[in-house]
């Protein structure tokens, strides 16, 4: 029973990692950059939800929609202001800019909300499900449903829409896609918008499980989601999903059966082993770079 409960807990946490990892992998696949500010968009989403519900007393559904809107606009703004001017710059300059944007968002949150954690009770009130001796909490059920729906919709969007086709074309060859009449800048902006919207959803689910707001709350899940994206094969959406779920399960089982303190070390150790055997990740493709 303990194993099954830990497995369910791991899949719940892994589902959130997967949502965040998809944002990393989509941006990398299309813009060929790592957006290290992605984890902080989760933080912005959590604080936005807090303001809309606790301060403005908006209904939860309206608050969730506005939270997704805030993060989407923020993602597009970051791309336009910070990353677009560096489209042809060396990757090191883009990396430093991404880290700078991350610290900027954290500093603004620290200035507005201060460093003291703010308690935030969840608005998700779904009764737990009892199957024999196993109890699945309402938040876990909601997390599974929301992440499954998001992943199905994203897969359909990428594979069966005109914009999705453009995103796949840009990820394969940006210049060739431009010659075929695809608006590369707009495609990259849409990618940031989708990734940021998923980060908002992940932030809402995360704060529902860990009800404490602080300016650095997005840092650790952001790093773990980045590890999940690399684990599954960065640039691959199915890889990000698989990497996130596996990471969550490994972390949960490590905490239950080995050591809570060693759980993160075990997760990163397994990542290193996987990359030594398969550097492109579990579902990543090996690419030959021309020189």
TrEMBL record:
Task: Please give, as recorded in its UniProt entry, the membrane topology of this protein.
Answer: Multi-pass membrane protein
Q: Where in the cell is it found?
A: Cell membrane
Q: Name one GO cellular component term.
A: plasma membrane
- Is this entry keyworded S-adenosyl-L-methionine? no
GO function term, MF aspect, one = L-valine transmembrane transporter activity
**CDD domains tied to this protein:** TM_PBP1_LivH_like
The record's InterPro entries line, in alphabetical order, gives: ABC_transp_permease, BCAA_transport_permease
Annotated membrane-spanning segments are: 12-30, 60-78, 90-113, 134-158, 188-213, 225-250, 256-277
The record's annotation in PANTHER family points to: BRANCHED-CHAIN AMINO ACID TRANSPORT SYSTEM PERMEASE PROTEIN LIVH (PTHR11795), HIGH-AFFINITY BRANCHED-CHAIN AMINO ACID TRANSPORT SYSTEM PERMEASE PROTEIN LIVH (PTHR11795:SF371)
Name of this chain's protein: Inner-membrane translocator
Q: Which organism is it from?
A: Lachnoclostridium phytofermentans (strain ATCC 700394 / DSM 18823 / ISDg) (Clostridium phytofermentans)
């Amino acid at each position: 029973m303990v194993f099954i409960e830990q497995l369910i807990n791991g899949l719940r946490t892994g589902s959130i990692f997967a949502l965040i990892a998809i944002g990393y992998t989509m941006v990398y696949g299309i813009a060929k950059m790592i957006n290290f500010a992605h984890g902080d968009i989760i933080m912005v989403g959590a604080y936005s939800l807090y303001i809309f519900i606790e301060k403005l007393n908006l209904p939860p559904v309206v608050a969730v929609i506005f939270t997704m809107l805030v993060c989407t606009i923020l993602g597009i703004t970051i791309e336009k202001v910070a990353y677009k001017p560096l489209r042809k710059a060396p990757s090191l300059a883009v990396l430093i800019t991404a880290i700078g944007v991350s610290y900027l968002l954290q500093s603004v949150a620290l200035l507005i909300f201060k460093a003291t954690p703010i308690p935030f009770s969840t608005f998700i009130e779904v009764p737990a499900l009892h199957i024999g001796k196993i109890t699945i909490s309402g938040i876990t059920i909601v997390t599974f449903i929301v992440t499954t729906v998001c992943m199905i919709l994203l897969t359909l969007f990428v594979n069966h829409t005109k914009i999705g086709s453009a995103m796949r074309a840009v990820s394969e060859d940006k210049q060739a896609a431009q010659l075929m009449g695809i608006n590369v800048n707009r495609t990259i902006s849409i990618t940031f918008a989708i990734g940021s919207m998923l980060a908002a959803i992940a932030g809402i689910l995360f704060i529902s499980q860990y009800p404490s707001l602080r300016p650095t709350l997005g840092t650790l899940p952001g790093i773990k989601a980045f590890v999940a994206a690399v684990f599954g094969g960065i640039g691959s959406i199915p890889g990000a999903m698989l990497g996130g779920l596996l990471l969550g399960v490994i972390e949960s089982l490590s905490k239950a059966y080995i050591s809570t303190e060693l759980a993160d070390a075990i997760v990163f150790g397994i990542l290193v082993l996987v990359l030594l055997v398969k550097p492109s990740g579990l579902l990543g493709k090996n690419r030959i770079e021309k020189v």
